[in-house]
Structures are given as structure tokens and as C-alpha cells.
Amino acid sequence: MTNMVEDIRSFLNGQRDAMVELEGLLTSNPALAPENGGDGETKKADALEKWLKEAGFTDIKRFEAPDSRVSSGKRPSLVVTIAGSPSDYSIWSMAHLDVVPVGDPKLWKTDPWKVVEKDGKLFGRGVEDNQQGLVSSVFAALYLIKKGIKPSHTVKLLFMADEEVGSKYGVCWLLKNTDIFNKNDLILIPDGGDPKGETIEVAEKNILWLKFHVSGAQAHGSRPDQGNNACLAASDLSLRVHALEKVFDARDKIFEPDYTTIQPTMRYANVEGVNIIPGEDTFCVDARILPCYSVNQVLGAVEEKCSEIEAEYGVQVCYEVLQNSESPATSTDAPVVKKLSEALKAVHGIDARTIGIGGGTVGAELRREGYSCAVWSTLDECAHMPNEYCVIDNMIKDAQTLAYFFMKA
Fold this sequence. Notes:
Layout: H1 2-13, H2 16-27, H3 42-55, E1 60-66, E2 74-82, E3 91-96, E4 116-118, E5 121-123, H4 131-146, E6 155-160, H5 171-177, E7 186-189, E8 199-204, E9 206-215, E10 219-220, H6 230-242, E11 261-267, E12 276-277, E13 280-289, H7 295-313, E14 316-325, H8 335-348, E15 353-357, H9 362-368, E16 373-375, E17 389-391, H10 392-408
Parallel strand pairs: 3-6, 3-7, 7-16, 8-15
Antiparallel strand pairs: 1-2, 2-6, 4-5, 5-17, 9-13, 9-14, 10-12, 11-13
Helix pairs in contact: 1-10, 2-4, 4-10, 6-7, 8-10
């Protein structure tokens, strides 16, 4: 076993420059959802598929969810297969193609769409989320191909669309429209973790995204008595909804933070002048709910707050559910958790531990459909931030772990 681990390490240490090159290719092809002002994943999927074929991958299938909002009319996901011997289950590594917007470009020290290497890190939008996991998976599988190794079970890499805004055109579409998954499969999602690579995520908080619209009556800024200030009512509503954190106040130490969070986030423009009382106001809330509470419980409490605001301010309140995700946990004894733990111990001497997270991954969608899966990576968790970066050594180490996992799981 020692010789095998050393061979994996040696091969993948030698692929450093190629990994950096692939990160650069992926970053230079922005994959933004229409909701984020983008044109989907087609160009990025095309570039990745071309690279994979040139690298020696021969079994690549493309699955395309229809979406008339993008110029290609499709949201592509790629499945790469390295055939193994038994057919009782496959081993999956799943990463997503899409990224989030840059945000305020003035906060970036480099061009976010061009990878810059500095001090052992790669800077650029998407380099960590989720291209680090994508690249690690690719090169772990490339080890099998270049060494002529037939794994004990079939290895499949999934590079999916639409993870950042709900997965409707990605894994959710695949679950509804294909039969590519098996309930016995070992599913690993390299899309979350910690700087030491020792945590394996097996549970996620329930996610509820809400968009509130408050309708009052517009008036001159000097005559609030002639209108109903929708901004004032919306501000009060946002505080009351946030205060529900103290109502749903259970604690669960598997998560960090260990409580339910209900946070007002995005606010839409209302009026164009300081001296105008707004008649309309719109804002959003991001709730991450401990699994001991259902989304419907929280929604019931939210509706009570909406009714209170309507009565007190003489406005109308309506809300839209932008995302509603509930899922069970993966057992800490699930084969994917055990096999990944064994790989981390064998390759890097890491004693893994299981955790839950507040962030959302495709793991929730899979668990809800009865698939066991684990989320893991070695990363600094700078996703969605300005100056997002990937630690190159982490990417290489994760590829080494994945290569062992692919061979021994």
C-alpha cells in the first residue's frame, strides 16, 4: 500500500502546472446563471470537454436541460466514466460548473476572470468554488488513465450546471430525467470543507429563501400623512422576521453556527428621490434552519409577522419562496463516509470527523431522493468573496486523496 500511495503522490505532484493551466482555462470561461446576468455554462462545458478529450478521457456524455433564457437554449452537465469491474455500484465525484458573480469589481486586486498565481495560491472567480474540486477530481481520474489502472468499481465524474441558484437545471433535472444514479453508489461532493481537510459534511441545514414585496402608497417626503411608507413597513418586517431566530432557538453542535439563522439580505431599489415616500419596497431573506424545525414551521411564523405589519402600517405584504430545501442526514456509518475516512488516513494521516453545515450543496438534493453522499475538500472557504483563491497544494493533496478513494472504495 505504501508504494501505491507514494506513486499517487509522485504522479500528482508532477501535475502541478497542468492543474494550474486547467484552472486558468475554466476561469476564463465565466459560467453565470441567467439569474446572475449570465449566459449559462455552455462555453465552459465546451472548453472542459475539449480539454478532457485531449487529455485522454474517452467516455464523456453530455446531458442538457432545456433553458430558453440562455443563447444555446441548454444548460449542460458532463459525465465522465472510467469503467471498473463490478457493476453493483459506482463511485462518483460531483463538482459544479457555474460560479457566482464578481460583486464589486473595485474590491478585487486582480482580474477576476483571469487566474493569477501568487504565494502558492490561485486568484480568480470560481478557482475554489468549485473548480478546485473539479480539477482535483479530473487529475485523480487522470492518474488511473495514465497508469492504465482499472478501478475496482466504475468511477464517474459529474460536472453539473446551475448549482449556485438552486440546481433546477443541474442535479435536480438529472434526478428527474435520467437514470444515471444508483442508490448503492458512493457519492462524494468536493464542494465544502476546512483548511486541514479533516471534516466530512453529512448534514445540511434546511434552506429557505424568501422575497418580500410591501405595497403602500407613495407620497411627497414632506407629507407622510398622505401615504403609507412601504420602506418603513418593510424595514420593520425585516427586523421581525430576523427576530424569529430567537423563537426557533434550538442548538445543534454538529453545525457552525449551531443555531438557526434568519437574515435579511438583498434589498431592491424603490424610489429615485430622497424626497419621495416609497409606495413599494422589496427585500429578501436567507434562512438556514436546523433540521429539528421544518420549513413550514418557519413559514407559518413568517406569515404571522406579515399579518402584523399589514395591520399596523396599512400596507399589503406578499412573499415569494425563491428556494425551499429540506433533506435528511447521511449516516456517519455510510460506506462513502467510511471509505473517504480510510483514504484520508492512508494518504495524509488525517483522522476525519463528521459535521453539518449551513451552506447548501447538491448533497441536499441527493439525500432528499434517498442517496447517501458526503461533502469534503481541503480549502480556506473563501467562496463568493472578492479575491477568491485556491491553495495549489490543497488542490494537489485532494487529488491524491481522491485517486486513492477511486481505487479502494
